[in-house]
Amino acid sequence: MTPARTPRSMDPWSEDHVLRPITPATAFEETVERLSNSILLGVLPPGSQLPPERELAVRLGVSRATLRRALAALQEAALIHARAGRGGGTFISEWQENERPILPDDWTAVLDLRASLEMGAAMLATTRAGEADLNELDELITQMYEAEGPDTYRRLDVSFHLKIAEITGSGPLIEAVARAQVELTRLVRLIRRPGEALRVSNEQHAGILTAMRDKDAGKAALAAFYHNESTRHILSALPRS
Predict the structure, then answer these.
(1) Which of 86, 131, 135, 167 is the most buried (most CB within 10 A)?
(2) For residue 6, what pLDDT band results from cuts at 50, 70 and 90?
(3) CB atoms inside a 10 Å sphere around CB 179
(4) For the domain bounded by 107-235, which CATH number is listed?
(5) Interatomic CA distance for residues 42 and 38, integer angstroms
(6) How far apart are CA 42 and CA 92, in angstroms?
(7) Was domain 8-99 assigned CATH 1.10.10.10?
(8) pTM higher than 0.90, yes or no?
């Protein structure tokens, strides 16, 4: 007997499947990851047009504001582009092979180590931070919002995470976090024009600081975890080697 064909809506390689509703808690990151993976796998082929914004938001189950931010991040990564005028809309970009920034094989291991280190650092720092420490973190967040260009942002970003490690007073932990940040920098520099991703990242920095001010070590660790997972989602938009 010939097996029944999988319905299109359940086919993991179909457009209906990849444009199914998103989980609300990580809507921005999951929208970026879902669409980027669909593009890189060819489910949404080069030159094809995405559905209109209103329709796409409904199909993914996200707000139009979230969708706009995700589309901005994908445009910054050169995965999509917009055309104005008659026949305009949002289209999947066509890549030249030598234009692709390729993720190294160890990228997930780098993020796993970073998550472990920075969750622990956030918990410990929350129990040891003084008001001056918290104010310094707050100032770094402000500077990141005002940073001109990804290189300036990245320098401040590293300073923010190193400051949290320094608050713990643990020399080995500070050194380990610094090494993890060096490896992370190698990865995030593969992201092209990451404006929207950086804005989301800094909102997450603010969430870590809020938890630290509340003296909630568990919440600070969870905020650090989701911050790391956001980076994982954004990086997953890039091709693998």
Answers:
(1) 167
(2) very low
(3) 13
(4) 1.20.120.530
(5) 6
(6) 10
(7) yes
(8) no
